[in-house]
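Pinned message: reference record for Acyl-CoA oxidase
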Amino acid sequence: MSSLRLNLICRHLGQNTTDQFSKSNLKTPYVQDPIDFLHLDELLPADLNNKRKQLRAALEANIAPHVSEWYDKAQFPAGLAEKLRPLNIFGITEEKYGCRKVCPLEKSLAIYELARIDASLATFYALTLSLVAFTIEKLGSEEQKAKYLPKLCNLDIIASWGLTEPDYGSDASSLETTATPVKGGYILNGVKRWLGNAIISDIMIIFARNTVTQNIEGFIMDSKAKGVSVTNINRKLALRIVQNGNVFMKDVFIPENERLEKGHTFATGANVVLEHSRMNLSWMVAGLIAGTYEHAVKYIRERTQFRAPLAAFQLNQEKLVRILAIYQAVFLMSWRTTMLLVKGQGNVAQASLVKGWCSYMGREATRLGREVMGGNGIIIDNYAMKALVDMEVVYTYEGTYDVNALVAGRAATGVAAFKAGYKA
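Predicted structure (tokens):
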């Protein structure tokens, strides 16, 4: 806007241009936390809600002050595991192998609170528990569980999970990485892409096609094994704290006892894990929207333009209320899906519908948060733009919106529509 036009507007409003960036002194009560609007925390068991509040306080004190720097530098700091360990949020589905039990709702609320601070933190947590630890707990041998689960839950080791390849993302069951049976084990060859934690991992779960049976099986691979090389995926615009990488395997020997004992097909192995993990992702969306709302409402109450707080403008209120409404819907859908899972009534179609729709609407919510902050919304410290680009990843990973829609559509219609009738 030109200075002449700005002066004309300010003169019309009876405002001096020097007042333009003054700060509001609003003292009126307002909804600071979107969970309070419909008292949604009353849906949570008292003990878990108290844990959630304790986790929030610890994250605000010990993690949040550093996130902008980590995000700006795109680094996973060496001491982050030490900061996360005392939070006591890591565990498995039952108290065993020296690990604490973390029920589905507790894990979901941890993802929610972590995402409210930063989606990379939530992704690291979900990767560690919902993908790696769950894979070993569900598909591993007793020896593998006793060996790896305590170290994972105590963050003594960091792990990656490898299914996606350069040429196969949504069509993961067509992967080309091979596992050739040899005396005493298997030889792995292939390339994996987008593995979170790749360059900082100690172990990797790798899914490969058995060259004899043609089935897709899982293996626990030492990240430093001979024949393994990793390159970081740099210049990412989202989830910048997560260290994603490419993993190259050239004649990597995997001992027989590091092959996952169960789930020797895609349907009974990798897909079981993906279905489990997908149940939690809408909570990440809820956390991102919560963080966006909190920053946005604080900003428009404090920021003054034309001698009035931005919160006094109708358009800003409408946009903020849209964020607030989307939050209520996302939280309720996430909560209901988790409750169905606890009751043993959850299924992949429900998880896909909720993850797909929530992340779709999450894009609008974070965009609106950036919008009401104006130019300042693009600054990392103001959260909204960071949440917006991170939401783009959540919208895409562990099943794109389109794939999740088709999973839900198959359940709704009884007809699978994944593959077109096109023939080359």
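Pinned by admin. Summary line: The beta strands are 159-162, 178-182, 185-196, 203-210, 216-222, 228-232, 244-255, 304-305, 308-309.
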